[in-house]
């Protein structure tokens, strides 16, 4: 057995200095020239009459009043929308919060305490929020573990599969509107893009399982393939009712079309079918056959360890956020909702502004708030079956997916057509009975 | 999938349990209380006295070095060995006393049953973790120390569920 | 379709058969190896391969005297550690003619029933894992704490009690045991009622276990299964009623059986047995006389040369001990006939022709405990 090195303070200080040295070298020799080259080509905005330069940036750090217009400008950039909100950072943070809430929620249902000790001694106000830093602890643990590749595994695909999964899951969130005007890709075929990306997941599961060169991932990958393909059709059919009533494929316009009544009130069956098939696409209990622990160890992700496993879990929970957001957008009215503080009258806080510069208008702030609340509620509802149901068997799964759910979604389409012809709802609003 | 009614009942049962109190014992903030102070044996009656079977305690003023505890353990775990001690006692002519290796002991308490002199009992202490195997061998002087274990919770049942409190 | 080289595939006339070793290190099998041949999703052949944890328990018994055998013999089944050596104590008492006080008999019945409930809850929890139901794992494990707390108050240890000895039990119950037991057993009964909604009447659970692995009554008798498996196939056979030992003939309890013989029945009969166990414990606590709990013996009890055969209804089924003594303090031969080992032919018989996804449901419903089967 290897002996453990004794801790030496001199070595510790030396390593910190070495790290600092290299950070400074890379910053000055590489990063600063890149910044200057970029600024040379990108037209700099004007702040208070002066053109933007790095010295102005440093001044802004101590005098935020000058910085407010710059922050306003940043919020309008497409890069901000892609990277921060409602893009990848927001999705990843939401996914992490959902994992934590799942663990505590399931624990409460099972009369036990979930994560308890992480973060308990750190902050005095964290004692009542037990285990708040558990996700950080798990992240650090996964980063520190060795990634073991089985012998004979297909190395390029083995390394690429988790990354492709994260990329595909993140691509789903590009069309979901988180607020009025807050959508990364405002395309007219948004819903079609969602289905195209969803069709990609069976392929990634199969690639991940095939590249592992082992029996259990093989069986798990085939099961995942069967399950996801079987449940894509009811997913698409259940959304067809929404498309009929709104006449749109653009998700932002579908949200606006739910002005009088949310579609869950008009098409409850469609919402139910969408919810069930979303659970099947996410491989959550009761549909978690691809990772059925008692039969096939962990299914198609058996051989993944360390950060590869962490990436797969991240992809899974970002997909949960995406499908919950899609449910909210299609059936629950997206970001629409009454202003929560309207009862305060004319003195109600309106929007978010900073030193006179308006960052978010009232409508935007209220919309984002309602979207986050609704998505969180739907995500918690998706976590509920894990505490209540056992796993379903593959033949019952396929029978349900191919026969029963397709039949129910056809009933839903007929209801949507009936509502259209009765004039209750439709692209042109309630118009009364359409005469032939 | 048969029985939507059954599914509703299952969901209702699951969500009803969100308000039941949590049962977990939050060790080390909460430690279980035990009744009495450890398993003891009365050689005159030939029967034991109920108590928790934790670490042993050796009363030096009663132990005569008869080795009956070591002989009893020979067929079970071979965890007791007799060692020479420095102090001389009147009732312990050979000056030997048991040392117990808690790496091997299974805490069955048959050594306590074998002692005819009320010298070896067991206590409530179970927090015996150590960093090396040698630290788990308790010499007779270490065994004479009274434990400082303080339990503070037990199972309480009320109409909102059972909990440790 | 070219398969990766790590899989053994045999070509046969019916199709391609894949051999899977549900091996000793598998979340779905315990310390037990099941070599399964599947054709698509149907199991063609299942070959149980026990012996991974064989330690030679029976041989090691010959090197220890009767009292030293007690901590040794409770190891094959530590979750039911009073039940696994019950016939041993009864056998030694028969050989050496040791009288047992009445109070000790009642306490032995109480502890045996408590251990039966502890084992059944553990079994139910693992059944929940096998079917993917995490709540059904957590709830029985949590409720088991109520019973283990009682066992710890009486014997001093949570599992591995080392409590029964030839001649009675090692110590008397503590003073407030009766009130504590009644309170916790009432709450435990209330908890058992909660299992029905979320588990036994859950449509997904019913889909997975109703009609799966059906064992008819005649087949059950022919294959030699015992315990809840036999009672779930319609044969009302319980050693506590046929050959009552200790004070079971003075207590009033029922034996339940269901006549469907599928995995659902094998999962439901233990629940009914747990209700009856609560009943038995309460009756025994009421009727218990006062007195001593142990016959005073020397440290090396021995009896004349002879043999004895005693059997007991443990949590898994009929457990029997055959003891041969040659007049010395150490037994000449101890033979344990454990119920888990008896279920192996039924496992092989039921798994043939069923789906691969049904394998956990059938395998664990047969009440198989690998450590006990291997001894």
Give an account of the 3D structure:
- The complex is a heterotrimer of chains A (436), B (165) and C (375).
- Chain A is mostly helical and 436 residues long.
- Chain A has a domain at 145-339 and 351-421.
- Chain A has helices at residues 9-41, 54-62, 64-76, 78-83, 88-109, 134-143, 155-172, 190-198, 201-210, 215-246, 251-257, 263-266, 268-281, 293-296, 307-331, 362-383, 394-421, and strands spanning 46-47, 50-51, 352-354, 357-360.
- In chain A, helix 2 (54-62) crosses helix 3, helix 7 runs antiparallel to helix 8 and helix 13 runs antiparallel to helix 15.
- The longest helix of chain A has 33 residues, at 9-41.
- The model of chain A has no long low-confidence stretch (mean pLDDT 82).
- Chain B is α+β, with helices and mostly antiparallel strands and 165 residues long.
- Chain B has one domain: Alpha-Beta Plaits (2-Layer Sandwich).
- Chain B is 18% helix and 20% strand.
- Chain B has a three-stranded antiparallel sheet. Chain B has a two-stranded antiparallel ribbon with strand order 1-2.
- In chain B, a hairpin with a 2-residue loop joins strand 8 (155-158) and strand 9.
- Chain C folds into two domains: 9-49, no CATH class; 58-374, Cytochrome-c3 Hydrogenase, chain B, CATH 1.10.645.10.
- In chain C, strands 1-2-3-4 form a four-stranded antiparallel sheet. Chain C has a three-stranded antiparallel sheet with strand order 7-8-9. A two-stranded antiparallel ribbon of chain C has the order 5-6.
- Chain C is of the alpha+beta class and 375 residues long.
- The chains are: A mainly alpha (436), B alpha+beta (165), C alpha+beta (375).
- At the B-C interface, helix 1, strand 2 and helix 3 of B face helix 2, helix 5, helix 6 and helix 7 of C.
């Amino acid at each position: 057995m290897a002996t453990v090195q004794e801790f030496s303070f001199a070595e510790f200080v030396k390593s910190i200095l070495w790290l600092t040295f290299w950070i400074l070298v890379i910053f000055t020799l590489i990063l600063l020239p890149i910044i200057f080259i970029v600024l040379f080509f990108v037209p700099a905005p004007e702040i208070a009459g002066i053109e933007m330069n790095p010295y102005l940036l440093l001044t802004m750090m101590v005098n935020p009043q000058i910085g407010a217009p710059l922050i306003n400008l940043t919020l309008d950039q497409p890069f901000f929308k892609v990277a921060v909100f409602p893009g990848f950072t927001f999705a990843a943070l939401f996914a992490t919060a959902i994992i934590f809430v799942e663990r505590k929620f399931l624990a409460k249902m099972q009369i036990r305490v979930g994560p308890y000790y992480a973060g308990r001694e750190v902050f005095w106000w964290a004692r009542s929020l037990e285990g708040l830093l558990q996700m950080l602890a798990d992240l650090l643990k996964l980063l520190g573990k060795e990634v073991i590749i089985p012998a004979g595994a297909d190395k390029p695909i083995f390394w690429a599969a988790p990354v492709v999964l994260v990329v595909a899951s993140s691509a789903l969130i590009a069309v979901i509107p988180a607020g009025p005007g807050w959508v990364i890709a405002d395309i007219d075929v948004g819903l079609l893009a969602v289905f195209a990306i969803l069709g990609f997941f069976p392929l990634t599961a199969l690639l991940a399982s095939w590249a592992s060169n082992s029996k259990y991932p093989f069986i798990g990958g085939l099961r995942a393939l069967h399950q996801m393909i079987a449940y894509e059709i009811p997913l698409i059919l259940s959304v067809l009712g929404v498309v009929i009533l709104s006449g749109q494929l653009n998700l932002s316009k579908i949200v606006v079309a739910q002005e009088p009544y949310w579609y869950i009130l008009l098409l409850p069956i469609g919402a139910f079918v969408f919810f069930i098939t979303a659970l099947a696409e996410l491989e959550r209990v009761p549909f978690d056959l691809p990772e059925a622990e008692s039969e096939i160890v962990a299914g198609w992700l058996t051989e993944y360890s360390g950060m590869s496993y962490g990436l797969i879990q991240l992809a899974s929970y970002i997909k949960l956020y995406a499908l919950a957001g899609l449910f909210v957008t299609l059936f629950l009215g997206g970001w629409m909702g009454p202003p929560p503080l309207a009862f305060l009258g004319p003195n109600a806080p309106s929007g978010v502004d900073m030193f006179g510069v308006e960052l978010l208008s009232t409508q935007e702030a209220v919309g984002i708030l309602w979207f986050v609340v609704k998505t969180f509620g739907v995500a918690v509802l998706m976590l509920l079956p894990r505490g209540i149901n056992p796993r379903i068997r593959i033949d019952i799964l396929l029978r349900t997916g191919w026969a029963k759910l397709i039949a129910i979604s056809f009933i839903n389409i007929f209801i949507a057509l009936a509502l259209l012809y009765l004039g209750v709802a439709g692209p042109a609003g309630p118009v009364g009975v359409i005469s032939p | 999938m048969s029985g939507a009614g059954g599914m509703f009942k299952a969901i209702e049962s699951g969500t009803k349990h969100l308000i039941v109190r949590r049962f977990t014992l939050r060790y080390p903030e909460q430690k279980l209380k035990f009744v009495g102070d450890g398993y003891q044996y009365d050689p005159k009656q030939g029967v034991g006295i109920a108590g928790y079977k934790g670490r042993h305690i050796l009363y030096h003023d009663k132990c005569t070095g008869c080795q009956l505890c070591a002989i009893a353990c020979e067929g079970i775990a071979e965890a007791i060995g007799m060692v020479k001690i420095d102090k001389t006692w009147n009732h312990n002519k050979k000056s030997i006393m048991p040392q117990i290796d808690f790496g091997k002991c299974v805490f069955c308490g048959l050594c306590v049953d074998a002692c005819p002199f009320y010298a070896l009992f067991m206590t409530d202490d179970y927090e015996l973790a150590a960093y090396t195997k040698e630290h788990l061998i308790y010499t007779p002087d270490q065994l004479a120390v009274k434990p400082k274990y303080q339990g503070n919770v037990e199972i309480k049942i009320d109409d909102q569920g059972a909990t440790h409190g | 379709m070219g398969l990766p080289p790590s899989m053994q595939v045999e070509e046969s006339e019916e199709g391609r058969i894949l051999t899977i070793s549900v091996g000793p290190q598998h979340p779905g099998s315990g310390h037990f190896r099941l070599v399964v041949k599947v054709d698509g999703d149907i199991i063609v052949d299942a070959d149980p391969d026990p012996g991974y944890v064989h330690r030679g328990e029976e041989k090691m018994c010959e090197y220890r005297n009767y009292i030293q055998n007690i901590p040794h013999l409770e190891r094959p089944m530590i979750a039911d550690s009073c039940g696994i050596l019950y016939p041993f104590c009864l056998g030694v008492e028969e050989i050496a003619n040791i009288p047992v006080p009445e109070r000790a008999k009642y306490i032995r019945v109480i502890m045996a029933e408590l251990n039966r409930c502890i084992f059944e809850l553990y079994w139910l929890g693992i059944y929940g894992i096998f079917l993917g139901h995490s709540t059904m794992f957590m709830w029985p494990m949590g409720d088991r704490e109520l019973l283990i707390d009682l066992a710890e108050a009486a014997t001093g240890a949570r599992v591995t009690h080392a409590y029964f000895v030839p001649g009675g039990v090692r110590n008397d119950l503590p003073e407030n045991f009766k009130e504590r037991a009644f309170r916790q057993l009432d709450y435990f009964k209330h908890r058992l009622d909660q299992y029905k909604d979320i588990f036994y009447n859950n449509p997904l659970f019913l889909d997975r276990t109703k009609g799966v692995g059906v064992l008819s009554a005649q087949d059950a008798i022919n294959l030699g299964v015992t315990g809840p498996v036999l009672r779930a196939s319609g044969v009302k056979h319980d050693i506590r009623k046929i050959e009552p030992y200790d004070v079971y003939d003075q207590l009033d309890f029922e034996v339940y059986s269901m006549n469907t013989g599928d995995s659902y029945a094998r999962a439901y009969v233990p629940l009914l047995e747990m209700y009856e166990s609560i009943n038995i414990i309460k009756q025994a606590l009421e009727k218990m006389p006062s007195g001593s709990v142990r016959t005073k013996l020397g440290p090396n009890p021995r009896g004349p040369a002879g043999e004895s055969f005693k059997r007991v209804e443990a949590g898994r089924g009929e457990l029997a001990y055959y003891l041969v003594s040659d007049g010395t303090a150490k037994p000449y031969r101890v033979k344990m006939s454990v119920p888990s080992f008896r279920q192996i032919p039924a496992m092989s018989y039921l798994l043939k022709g069923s789906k691969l996804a049904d394998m956990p449901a059938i395998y664990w419903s047969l009440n198989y405990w690998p450590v006990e089967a291997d001894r």
